[in-house]
Write a structure and sequence with these properties.
It comes from Muribaculum gordoncarteri. GO terms for molecular function: DNA binding; DNA ligase (NAD+) activity; metal ion binding. Among the domains are: 49 residues, Helix Hairpins, CATH 1.10.287; 240 residues, DNA ligase/mRNA capping enzyme (D-amino Acid Aminotransferase, Chain A, domain 1, 2-Layer Sandwich); 100 residues, OB fold (Dihydrolipoamide Acetyltransferase, E2P), CATH 2.40.50; 79 residues, Rossmann fold (3-Layer(aba) Sandwich), CATH 3.40.50.10190. Helix content is 36%, strand content 19%. The chain contains 24 helices and 22 strands. The strands form 6 sheets. The protein has a 5-stranded mixed β-sheet. Helix 1 runs antiparallel to helix 2. It is globular. The mean pLDDT is 91. The structure holds nicotinamide-adenine-dinucleotide and zinc ion. The site of nicotinamide-adenine-dinucleotide (NAD) has 25 residues, from helix 1, helix 2 and strand 3.
Amino acid sequence: MDAAKQIENLRKELNRHNYNYYVLNAPEISDRDFDMMMKELEKLEHEHPELDDPYSPTHRVGSDINKAFEQHVHQRPMLSLGNTYSIAEVDDFLHRTRESLMGEEFSIVGEMKFDGTSISLTYRDGRLVRAVTRGDGERGDIVTDNVMTIKSVPLQLNGSGWPQEFEIRGEIVLPWKAFDRLNAEREFNEEPLFANPRNAAAGTLKMQNSAEVARRGLDAVFYYLLGDNLPCDNHYDNMMEARKWGFKVSSEMKLLHSIEEVDRFIEYWDTARKELPVATDGLVFKVNNLRQQLNLGYTAKSPRWAIAYKFQAERALTQLRFVSFEVGRTGVVTPVANLEPVLLSGTIVKRASLHNADIVRTLDIHEHDMLYVEKGGEIIPKITGVDTDSRLPDAKPVTFVTDCPICGTRLVRVEGEAAWMCPNKWGCPPQICGRIEHFVGRRMMNIEGIGEEIVVILYQNGWVNDIADLYDLHTHRTEIEALPGFGPRTADRMIDGIEASRQVPFERVMYALSIPFVGETVAKKLARSLGDIDSVMNAGVEALTAIDDIGPRIAESVQEYFNNPVNRDIIERLRRAGVQMSMPKRDDADSSDRLAGKSIVISGTFSKHSRDEYKDMIERHGGKNVSSISKKTDYLLAGENMGPAKLQKATSLNIPIIDEDTFLKMIEND
Ligand SMILES: NC(=O)c1ccc[n+]([C@@H]2O[C@H](COP(=O)([O-])OP(=O)(O)OC[C@H]3O[C@@H](n4cnc5c(N)ncnc54)[C@H](O)[C@@H]3O)[C@@H](O)[C@H]2O)c1
Ligand SMILES: [Zn+2]
């Protein structure tokens, strides 16, 4: 292949990976592989200056701009960092810096490289006025509302001495604990897991629903102060000032005075970082003195006064014991590599998902192969390769099962996907138990006292075969009490939990039914738009797809579910048991058509009701809540601390801006 073709291919590939990483938050390759590809392109472009292109990914910061947000142009571009993978490369950087500074003394600040998503905050007169993502480096998305939900971000500064206006940059992170909780929840709801806390943080920051953002537990750490009248002439002291104003500044930040100290800092954190409560993917070294920073300047993509050192992804070689095939609630069969236990990033890894049949085939795994397991920025261990040299001569390739490993039914291929599933919905135990577990879950019917293990016991004893059987469980009370380790208190808790679930609102019942493709949000929309179960059951495809966010695939799935007589029977039994099958009747005073046909944007914070309550009110009075301002917007319902850009846009489009009192008057009874 000639260089031009090679360069073109690399650019195309890198652009695609940038998109997966920054926009979809779902990288396909490891950061290291990405960085190596980038270095290769840099090298080729260097050798062939005639093929250079300002749009090449080597000159540009990967963009995370999302059309659903308004954008803001950064006063100073937000750049990336040059990266290195070894102490020697960091030392090179220090030598180069010394040369560029003509031998002048300099000190270095060593910092954690937090693995989240960058944010720029602007403060005026001590108050937060705007939060913007890095975007493409030149301009980013305005995410002020979402950032305001992060408790450690000061809305109003403490102390004194801050410039009248300044910018502070940092990283929005999702601490390990919150990340694990979020993924456990997603796993339970059978939603795709986040590959790592960085992707989770970036995805969360770009959500349209600030209440959900608040619930997820983001945090923010700050590492860069910018402005015209900063309090000190060096980076370190400025950060110490920022800490006094109320910003979270990492306590791991350290002033370093020699190459030896830098090297020791790296050696120490190479292992110690595993104990930190947030994910880090490396260290950052910055020249401390601001005048020296200015002298060193920038390349198109990164400052010359700083460098990142990236930690190695941890990789281990271990033997495959066997591949198991596991059946989930929806019947999809997932291959799992069961491994000889191996220590990786501080945890013992025994199992790693192989995802699907295509991946098993691509890796070409044979029985008892030695496999490479990796756990880098990604929390979920991944099989990245096979050591074919150590393969036993007569080892057979691992093949995907053709029949359900549990019930023996022949598997069918899921249309358009790499997945296989067991079609025996009503006879395959993990599917039956999976649906019951889903039904009792916290975000569904929230039946306390019944968890995963108890579901299996109830099923094995023949008492609960489907979700409706739960409501007859009291007839087995004596038998339950007699189970080893149970007793009257446990039985009480279960029965009380079931009793209480009769009050769970209809929209959560919709979600609890395990209708394929009907997740929490879709269930809510179905329930709210159609009002009761009979309307959902009888809705045609047209009526279903007329609802926001419901496409033909979901509509078909809903119809298929209710066309099945087994499901119809379950619904009737649930109805007889007193489970909520309709939305509560609203007081007429609570709803009207006063806002019929009006599109309303909500922005800022309010004192009389929460944003969610206002959204609800808009809908109840016939209006439509929309997230961004356009010519079609009828009103902007504005609270405190509203983003100035939104305000400006509304003014320029002549959209009436109303405060909460005006809004409440608008929907009041005459
Ligand atoms: N796997 C993939 O498909 C894929 C695709 C695109 C990018 N990537 C990865 O992303 C990297 C490029 O992303 P990037 O441009 O955000 O660079 P980066 O993440 O390597 O470094 C720059 C970022 O580090 C962050 N940072 C954290 N702590 C910091 C501190 N103390 N001081 C200063 N900055 C700090 C900032 O957000 C800054 O924007 C690549 O090197 C690659 O590893 C991977
Ligand atoms: Zn089966």
